[in-house]
């Protein structure tokens, strides 16, 4: 990218999405390169609701690489950040070996914000590292396969490098070059699919994914069985279901895989608990609702935290909102609860309420976010969106 004469350095701002795995990644065979013990598959969520925005500036006048995250300067020497910086610089050197190595002796100033809670089981590390790698690559003019680089920031980040439905193939090589993400189908393949993120708790979790899965690999025989005997078949079935828009199969596999992931957490020694009472109530609610409907209309999935991700189809969304609001009523403000989503006039039949047969739990769910599947990272062309000032330091309100 040519240097901006007015600024005296290159600056680019990009945004990247969160993804939710429906076949979960849990466990590494190489901690440093972040190579998984099984393949996984996810849905990229639309950036209108959940996104990371990152500005990268690159200048010869900067003395050192620096990063600000959500308004605070963070330690740039973090090994995962260093891996991403090193790998993008390496790709840039390769690309510019016969031409102009613009920017390669320069240092980076990086400023990033998430528009949702960080480290709360809402996949901030996935959107964060995907955005970082995409922005660094753009500022240095690097193209091509970048998911191998994002993977070295956080495993699940490699899937956020693409939109729609994305598989991360575990690969076999020791150097990780074949452990990459690929799009299985674009988001436009399944426009009726809807996602509801039921935020149960937006607090930092007790056991992070990285350490949780490390203990699982060391102690859980169920995890070994899952990786070797269960996931390969599920990946094939899930890819078929996504391509055919077969919701019943997609939903059943999604719920079973989430349940098996949490079973491996319980099989870990000492056990790791990510679900709480509200999560378990949501699981019961979904099964009772589906049973009453006589078909699988709704599925849940839980990552390393108590928040539920619900998958359903457009035609059932309004009713399930109402179900959520009835059994987990907000204390006062319905508007905040639904974060501005339209409150439809659906009323639930007494029969349905009876079939679910649960006591309402006030404030069990803090709020609901309702994204569709969405596209991958993109450059924000509008200069005022930069998070860094012309002097290369964060803007005051960031
Ligand atoms: N915008 C960002 N840019 C760079 N790094 C980020 C960004 N957002 C988050 N991170 C990194 O990811 C870490 C949080 O990852 P962690 O896995 O603990 O939580 P999570 O991704 O929100 O949850 P989960 O992966 O379980 O869904 C942060 O401490 C930070 O190091
Ligand atoms: C439960 C999960 O969300 C685990 C995500 O783990 P991370 O990608 O956060 O872990 P690291 O590779 O150590 O950074 C399942 C998934 O996203 O596939």
From TrEMBL:
Enzyme class: lyase
Record domain Diphosphomevalonate decarboxylase-like N-terminal: where: 16-181
PANTHER family in alphabetical order: DIPHOSPHOMEVALONATE DECARBOXYLASE
Entry's Gene Ontology cellular component terms: cytosol
Domain Mvd1 C-terminal, chain residue ranges per copy: 195-379
Gene name tied to this protein: ERG19
Protein name: Diphosphomevalonate decarboxylase
Listed GO biological process terms: cholesterol biosynthetic process; isopentenyl diphosphate biosynthetic process, mevalonate pathway
Family: Belongs to the diphosphomevalonate decarboxylase family.
Catalytically driven reaction(s): (R)-5-diphosphomevalonate + ATP = isopentenyl diphosphate + ADP + phosphate + CO2
Keywords: ATP-binding, Cholesterol biosynthesis, Cholesterol metabolism, Lipid biosynthesis, Lipid metabolism, Lyase, Nucleotide-binding, Steroid biosynthesis, Steroid metabolism, Sterol biosynthesis, Sterol metabolism
UniProt key word Metal-binding: no
Protein role: Catalyzes the ATP dependent decarboxylation of (R)-5-diphosphomevalonate to form isopentenyl diphosphate (IPP). Functions in the mevalonate (MVA) pathway leading to isopentenyl diphosphate (IPP), a key precursor for the biosynthesis of isoprenoids and sterol synthesis.
């Amino acid at each position: 990218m040519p240097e901006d004469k007015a600024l005296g350095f290159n600056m680019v701002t990009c945004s990247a999405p969160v993804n939710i795995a429906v076949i979960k990644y849990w466990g590494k065979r190489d901690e440093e390169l972040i190579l998984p013990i099984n393949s996984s598959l996810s849905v990229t969520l639309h950036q209108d609701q959940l996104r990371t925005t990152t500005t990268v500036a690159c200048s010869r006048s900067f003395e050192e690489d620096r990063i600000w995250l959500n308004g605070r300067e963070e330690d740039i020497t973090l090994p995962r950040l260093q891996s991403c910086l090193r790998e993008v610089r390496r790709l840039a050197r390769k690309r510019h070996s016969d031409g102009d190595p613009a920017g390669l002796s320069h240092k980076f100033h990086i400023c990033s914000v998430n528009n949702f809670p960080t480290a709360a089981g809402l996949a901030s590390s996935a959107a964060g590292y995907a955005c970082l790698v995409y922005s660094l690559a753009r500022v240095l003019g690097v193209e091509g396969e970048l998911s191998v680089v994002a993977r070295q920031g956080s495993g699940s980040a490699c899937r956020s490098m693409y939109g729609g439905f994305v598989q991360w193939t575990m690969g076999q090589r020791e150097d990780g070059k074949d452990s990459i993400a690929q799009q299985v189908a674009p988001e436009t393949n399944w426009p009726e699919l809807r996602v509801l993120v039921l935020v149960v708790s937006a607090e930092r979790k007790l056991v992070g994914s990285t350490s949780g899965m490390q203990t699982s690999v060391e102690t859980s025989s169920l995890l070994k069985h899952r990786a070797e005997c269960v996931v390969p078949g599920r990946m094939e079935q899930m890819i078929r279901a996504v391509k055919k828009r077969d919701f019943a199969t997609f939903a059943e596999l999604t719920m079973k895989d989430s349940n098996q992931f949490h079973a491996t957490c319980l099989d870990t020694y000492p056990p790791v608990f990510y679900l709480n009472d509200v999560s378990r109530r949501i699981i019961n609610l979904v099964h009772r609702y589906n049973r009453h409907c006589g078909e699988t209309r709704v599925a849940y999935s839980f990552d390393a935290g108590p928040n539920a991700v619900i998958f359903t189809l457009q035609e059932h969304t309004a009713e399930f909102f109402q179900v959520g609001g009835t059994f987990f009523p907000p204390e006062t403000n319905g508007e905040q609860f639904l974060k501005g989503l339209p409150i439809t006039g659906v009323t639930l039949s007494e029969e349905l309420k009876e079939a679910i047969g649960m006591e309402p739990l006030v404030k069990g769910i803090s709020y609901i976010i309702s994204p569709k599947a969405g596209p991958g990272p993109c450059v924000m062309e509008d200069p005022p969106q930069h998070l860094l000032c012309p002097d290369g330091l964060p803007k005051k309100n960031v």
